[in-house]
Amino acid sequence: MSTIGPLAATALAREAADRGVTLLDAPVSGSVALAEAGQLFAMVGGDADGYQRATPVLDAMTKGHMHLGRSGAGAAMKLAVNGAIAVTNEAIAEALVLAERYGIERESAYDVLAGGAVASPFLLYKRESFLHPESTPVGFTAELMRKDLALILGLAADLDVPLPAVEAAERTLDAAIGAELGAADIARVADILRRGR
Questions:
Q1: For residue 52, what pLDDT is reported?
Q2: Are residues 179 and 96 in the same domain?
Q3: Are residues 87 and 165 in the same domain?
Q4: How much of the chain, in percent, has pLDDT values that exceed 70?
Q5: CA 6/CA 22 separation, integer angstroms
Q6: Is 1 part of a structural domain of the chain?
């Protein structure tokens, strides 16, 4: 259920199969609070019969799950999701900093984002991380997201898929890590943008 690349997931599944074990890659999506409430969503790759056998366990620990195909498919989908999260995080930070620089209060700007066309579960549950980063528990560190972006960009290179928005998010995360914010929440990329060019 870790966020690993599909090549690693496929290699583990082969090794498990050599020992008579069926391994599914089933990473999850959701926040820490959703994990604590058993409300994560699992993306599953691997043997279809193995998925059917694992369904009762997945039902007990997630709000939902989907079998996406062969071994590695769950891992690949998780990378796609985390790429979208990195880009969304970057877009929220950019929108807030632009609004703030114009003189709009940060909370008011966030309310507009949360009430408009770009509202999403991610935007809603990251509110405190963006508005009060010093006093909000870390949900997803910049270092961890940076590790995931390396996996995402590696997969994209293997598949010959350009990801310019993910590359932009990577640059800002690199700057955050360079500014000793690696252990901080990914929302702290806004601090990097506030510093200007």
A1: 98
A2: yes
A3: yes
A4: 99
A5: 16
A6: no
Q: Using CA atoms, how far apart are residues 11 and 91, in angstroms rounded to an integer? A: 35
* Count of CA atoms in the C-beta half-sphere (13 A) of 93: 25
Distant-in-sequence, close-in-space partners of 69: CB < 8 Å, separation ≥ 6? 45
Per-residue pLDDT of 140-173, as tens digits, reads 999 999 999 999 999 999 999 999 999 999 999 9
3-state secondary structure of 94: helix
Catalytic residue among 63, 78, 126, 147: 78
Instruction: State pLDDT tens for residues 37-59.
Output: 888 999 999 999 999 999 999 99
Active site (annotated) includes residue 78: yes
Distance CA 182, CA 55 (A): 36
Does the model's pTM come out above 0.90? yes
- Give the pairing of strands 64-69 and 41-45: parallel
**What's the token pair of residue 193?**
């943008």
Query: Which structural domain range is residue 187 located in?
Result: 76-194
Instruction: Please check whether residues 11 and 66 belong to one and the same domain.
Output: yes
Same domain? For 151 and 62 the reply is no
Beta strand segments in 56-136, E? 64-69
